[in-house]
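Supplementary Methods. Inverse-folding protocol.

Structures were first reduced to a discrete structure-token string of length 364. This string, shown here, constituted the complete conditioning input.
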């Protein structure tokens, strides 16, 4: 799979106990809970790995690792990509295409260059334009001659209580996967993945995929933390979100099973990017979403409620955590469809219910 251009997000950080927290502010000034990835992807048996990604800007804390896709970014004449030392350190492929023109001279990062901007093809000689050079990059990365794509390690949530079963997901059917659980680097001689691997203590899982041609992928690393004192709750309801309608009161209750032995109450947060699939993006903050769409979540009861103000299809992420317990969260990514007051024939193809979806993609 290859990706259209995007912006690399700010990386997650680790607190002193090894739990991931977001580099941002929570309601009371503390860090926000994670993960941002849905712990239960809607299509859990399919890999969402990318082989190539075109990136149009970079945040300061972006971290790259050996299992990341090849990257393409844009610089001006005389500029040097801010990502280049990072992709070299990670051992992944990267290309910084030079966009010609006085307006870009010396630029180390260009945000949304014109698709007809002048540049050179991959051979460094033939005149081209940004659009064709990006497509050339994607075709090259999608070819069989490029390196094998690294496996994914599931579940995405990396803390557990008592026991967790770890699964590896390959991006291609003709690859074999090999793994270690002792922190060593996996090779073709490491145990072959045959099925879920049970863990009962904090463990570092490392995995590679080996293609039919014998070439190995980069190493995927996942640290699973056994933390009986700080396990997150598990969101149980609702499965799909019911549709709403502009101008009519909307209310739906999220529910969660507390973690074993938890003494702190469950708290709720509307977190992440709320993307209107039929129009502009809504703001990222919960308060901004309430102002833009007219809905908010009660942090104590988990009730998503309000009177919708704008029609559209919104991807939103709801998180549940035990207040004061390390802010390790369970998370559910949902698709919320708000219909106009007077319904017009839909052109989006969405079904009667709004399915839970993984990551930020909308599945029909």
């Amino acid at each position: 799979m290859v990706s259209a251009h995007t912006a690399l997000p700010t990386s997650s950080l680790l607190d002193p106990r090894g739990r991931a927290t977001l580099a941002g502010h929570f309601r009371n000034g503390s860090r926000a809970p994670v993960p941002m990835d849905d712990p239960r992807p809607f299509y859990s048996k399919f890999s969402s790995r990318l082989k190539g990604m075109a990136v149009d800007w970079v945040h300061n804390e972006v971290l790259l690792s050996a299992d990341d896709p090849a990257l393409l970014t844009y610089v001006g004449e005389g500029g040097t990509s801010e990502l280049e030392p990072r992709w070299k350190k990670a051992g992944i492929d990267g290309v910084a295409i030079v966009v010609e023109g006085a307006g870009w001279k010396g630029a180390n990062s260009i945000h949304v260059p014109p698709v007809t901007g002048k540049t050179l093809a991959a051979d460094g000689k033939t005149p081209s334009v940004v659009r064709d050079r990006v497509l050339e990059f994607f075709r090259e990365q999608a070819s069989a001659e490029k390196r094998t794509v690294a496996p994914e390690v599931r579940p995405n949530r990396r803390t557990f209580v008592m026991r967790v079963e770890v699964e590896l997901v390959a991006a291609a059917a003709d690859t074999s996967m090999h793994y270690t659980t002792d922190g060593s680097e996996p090779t073709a001689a490491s145990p072959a993945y045959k099925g879920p691997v049970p863990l009962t203590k904090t463990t570092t899982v490392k995995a590679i995929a080996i293609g039919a041609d014998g070439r190995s992928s980069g190493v995927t690393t996942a640290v699973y933390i056994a933390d009986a004192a700080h396990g997150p709750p598990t969101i149980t309801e609702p499965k799909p979100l019911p549709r709403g309608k502009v101008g009519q009161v909307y209310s739906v209750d999220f529910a969660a099973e507390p973690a074993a032995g938890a003494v702190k109450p469950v708290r709720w947060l509307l977190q992440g990017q709320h993307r209107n699939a039929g129009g502009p993006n809504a703001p990222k903050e919960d308060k901004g979403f309430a102002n833009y769409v007219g809905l908010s979540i009660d942090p104590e009861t988990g009730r998503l409620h309000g009177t919708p103000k704008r029609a559209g299809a919104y991807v939103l992420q709801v998180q549940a955590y035990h207040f004061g317990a390390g802010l390790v969260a369970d998370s559910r990514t949902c698709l919320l469809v708000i219909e106009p007051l007077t319904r017009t024939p839909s052109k989006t193809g969405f079904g009667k219910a709004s399915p839970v979806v993984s990551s930020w993609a909308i599945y029909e």
